[in-house]
Every structure is written in structure tokens, then in C-alpha cells.
């Protein structure tokens, strides 16, 4: 069965244009003109929805509020749409947990490419490696099937697609200096523009998740002029210790 996308935009012409184009490219599409309608329908069928395309400027709850609510309930991938040329909207959206953003006006073809890139990064294969589904580093556990993270003294937290993808990449390349351009291609499927702050925001968000001080990080360290290195030792485990809730 084809993937189900949800478009939330108060512009009827944009909704119908994107619905028609995406359906021609083998996606199933639902649409809503406001955040309240979308959230009500999402909660009734969350398991069927693979990605949300969310406009920032909505009547009633704006896209930021809807994204914040989504992130408190779900890790469904989100691409935010903004008509604001200023980068503030994009940065705020990413800080709230959006996986990507697109500035209006844009072509349906570009949106399709973003949708496919996000879904490729987000798709989860069964982790059948002998080393196991759990990653252990410092005082943290990452469950690579459930996409959840916990410290030894806290509860499990669901990660957004962008946070999970970036953390997993670091864990799989621990000890390696990873160029910014490589991280950008991995997390967004393309290199960054000269003023693109996407990666900076995502690194900052992940450091906050890990309690890693950006001024003096212990885990994700900046290698000036080169990129980043994940400095902790990482091990893989099939299961959790009996004393780990």
C-alpha cells in the first residue's frame, strides 16, 4: 500500500496542487485547512500517517503550535512550509522538532524530493545485527527499534526523526571526525547552502537532549575547520541489564 501523507495548509489551491501531484507519484494524501482539524484526525489514524507537510501560517493554532503538540505525542516526520524569507521561522521549526523545511514559493517536484529524502532517512529496517538493537554510551541507552533514548536516571524519551538519525549516525561513526558536509548530506540528502543553519540547529538540539554543554561539550565535539567527532565509547547490546527499567 502507498504511503499516506497529510498536508496542512489553509491555501486551498496549494492543498489541491500538492494533493494532485503527490497522488500522481503514488502517495495517498489527506488534507486539512487548519491545525485543530488535522490534530483531531491525526489522533484517530496516527499509525497510518507516514509524514506531515505543515504550513506555519494557519488560522487558529499556527504551525509552530501544531508541531509542538505533534512532538509531544508522536515522532511522525514533519516538513514545515514557510512564506517568511527570514530564517527565524526555519530555525524555530527545527528547534521544535521538524525534520526539514521548505520556503514558499517552491515547486511540487522539490517537495517530492524532500518527502522521499525524509522517508528514506526515517525508514527503519529490523535490526538483525548480532551486536543487538541497543547502543550504550556514557550513561545513555538508545533503542534503535523504538527510537527511544534514556539516561540511567531517567525515563525513555521518544526522539524525533531528525534527532534519532543524527544521533545514530554519530554512534555508528564514534571517534571519527565527520565533515559538516557529510552530516548535511546524510541528514538532509544534500549539501548545505552558505547561510543554511539546519545542521547547527540539529547539533544544538541533540546536545541539549544529551545534556552536552555547547560551550564545553563532552560528547559531540567541534573540530574547528573540519566538522564534529563523537568522543564517547559506544557498545552494542542485544538486551538491557536486568536493573535497567
TrEMBL record:
Record-listed 4-aspartylphosphate modification sites: 55
* Domain spans labelled OmpR/PhoB-type: 132-232
List keywords of the entry alphabetically.
DNA-binding, Phosphoprotein, Transcription, Transcription regulation, Two-component regulatory system
Annotated Response regulatory domain residues: 4-119
Q: Name one GO molecular function term.
A: transcription cis-regulatory region binding
Gene Ontology terms describing biological process: regulation of DNA-templated transcription
Superkingdom per UniProt: Bacteria
Database matches in Pfam families: Response_reg (PF00072), Trans_reg_C (PF00486)
Record's protein name: Response regulator transcription factor
What InterPro entries is this protein classified in?
Answer: CheY-like_superfamily (IPR011006), OmpR/PhoB-type_DNA-bd (IPR001867), Sig_transdc_resp-reg_C-effctor (IPR016032), Sig_transdc_resp-reg_receiver (IPR001789), WalR-like (IPR039420), WH-like_DNA-bd_sf (IPR036388)
On whether Phosphoprotein is a keyword of this UniProt record, the answer is: yes
UniProt DNA-binding region: 132-232
Q: Name one GO cellular component term.
A: cytosol
Amino acid at each position: 500500500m502507498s504511503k499516506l501523507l497529510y498536508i496542512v495548509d489553509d491555501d486551498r489551491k496549494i492543498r489541491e496542487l500538492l494533493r494532485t501531484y503527490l497522488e500522481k507519484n503514488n502517495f495517498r494524501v489527506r488534507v486539512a485547512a487548519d491545525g485543530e482539524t488535522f490534530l483531531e484526525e491525526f489522533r484517530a489514524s496516527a499509525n497510518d500517517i507516514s509524514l506531515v507537510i505543515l504550513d506555519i501560517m494557519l488560522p487558529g493554532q499556527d504551525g509552530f503550535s501544531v508541531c509542538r503538540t505533534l512532538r509531544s505525542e508522536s515522532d511522525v516526520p514533519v516538513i514545515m512550509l514557510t512564506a517568511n524569507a527570514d530564517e527565524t521561522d526555519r530555525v524555530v521549526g527545527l528547534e521544535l522538532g521538524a525534520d526539514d523545511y521548505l520556503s514558499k514559493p517552491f515547486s511540487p517536484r522539490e517537495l517530492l524530493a524532500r518527502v522521499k529524502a525524509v522517508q528514506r532517512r526515517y525508514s527503519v529496517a529490523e535490526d538483525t545485527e548480532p551486536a543487538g538493537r541497543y547502543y550504550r554510551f556514557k550513561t545513555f541507552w538508545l533503542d534503535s527499534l523504538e527510537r527511544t533514548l534514556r539516561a540511567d536516571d531517567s525515563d525513555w524519551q521518544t526522539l524525533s526523526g531528525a534527532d534519532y538519525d543524527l544521533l545514530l549516525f554519530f554512534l555508528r561513526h564514534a571517534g571519527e571526525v565527520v565533515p559538516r558536509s557529510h552530516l548535511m548530506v546524510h541528514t538532509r540528502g544534500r549539501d548545505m547552502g552558505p547561510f543554511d543553519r539546519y545542521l547547527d540547529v540539529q547539533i544544538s538540539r541533540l546536545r541539549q537532549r544529551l545534556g552536552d554543554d555547547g560551550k564545553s561539550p563532552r560528547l559531540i565535539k567541534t573540530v574547528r575547520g573540519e566538522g564534529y567527532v563523537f568522543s564517547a565509547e559506544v557498545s552494542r547490546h542485544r538486551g538491557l541489564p536486568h536493573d535497567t527499567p
